[in-house]
Specification:
6-stranded antiparallel sheet; 4 helices; alpha+beta; 146 residues; globular
Length: 146
């Protein structure tokens, strides 16, 4: 779900802003998009309500990341008894004018897949960002209802 729509409390909005600052500090020239999903019925049917989705765009094609944009989906699990959220993983997809170039998942062995995956340095930078996202949301007291 669009990050802008998930900012339902000051604490959660602050964590989303921290994630954006983290990526922009680690990867120069990124522009963040807190509403990467279109607001139409077909798109809405595909969006995971238990995720925070942030798009990041380069001013052109990144040679290291081998894409023009990437979408970061921070996936959550909400405990049905306590309504507390916790991060279960991140899914990242790199895109260019042809569509999806590569995928990365912290849920599936922290590996890149696709035709044009990032070079080693860029890949390590992305992995470092993902580890820091876990830190940002660890111990979160946010509830699904907030």
């Amino acid at each position: 779900m669009n990050a802008a729509e998930q900012a339902t409390s000051i604490e959660f909005a602050s964590k989303i802003a921290t994630v954006v600052r983290l990526f922009k500090a680690e990867i120069a020239d990124l522009r963040a998009d807190l509403r990467p999903w279109a607001n139409d019925r077909d798109t809405r049917s595909l969006v995971d309500p238990d995720s925070i989705d942030v798009g990041f765009h380069f001013p052109g094609v990144s040679r290291g990341f081998r894409c023009r944009s990437f979408l970061v989906q921070i996936r959550f699990y909400t405990d049905p008894e306590t309504q507390k959220r916790r991060v279960i993983g991140l899914e990242v997809g790199g895109f260019d004018h042809r569509g999806k170039c590569w995928s990365f998942s912290t849920i599936h062995q922290w590996r890149f897949t696709g035709d044009a995956t990032p070079d080693a340095k860029a890949g390590e930078t992305l992995k470092r960002c993902c580890r820091k996202v876990f830190d940002i949301f660890s111990g979160s007291q946010d509830s699904a209802a907030s």
